[in-house]
Design goal:
alpha+beta; 60% helix
């Protein structure tokens, strides 16, 4: 009787741990996707501004920096390249 209770408690504890691990992974995936979407939007904005000005453009928002030139658009997050589009 006691062994059955311990086994069922162990199974429930493992289920709860698995739930929280999955929740953490989903949260990290969501954060990374939000960062990539923000980088893509900033890159698009920089390329649009370059199309209007015809001069190299550097835009910054929070930790993101977008650089648009005639050859490419690159978006960095604290010196780490997130998005690069070349001609």
């Amino acid at each position: 009787m006691m062994a059955d209770s311990l086994i069922s408690l162990l199974v429930v504890a493992m289920g709860i741990n698995l739930f929280f691990i999955c929740e953490k992974q989903l949260w990290l995936q969501n954060r990374n996707l939000q960062l990539k979407m923000a980088a893509t939007r900033l890159g698009k904005e920089a390329s649009d501004l370059y199309a209007v000005k015809k001069q190299p453009v550097i835009l910054s928002r929070a930790d993101l920096t977008a650089k648009a030139t005639v050859q490419r658009v690159v978006v960095y997050n604290n010196d780490r390249c997130l998005c690069r589009v070349e001609k």
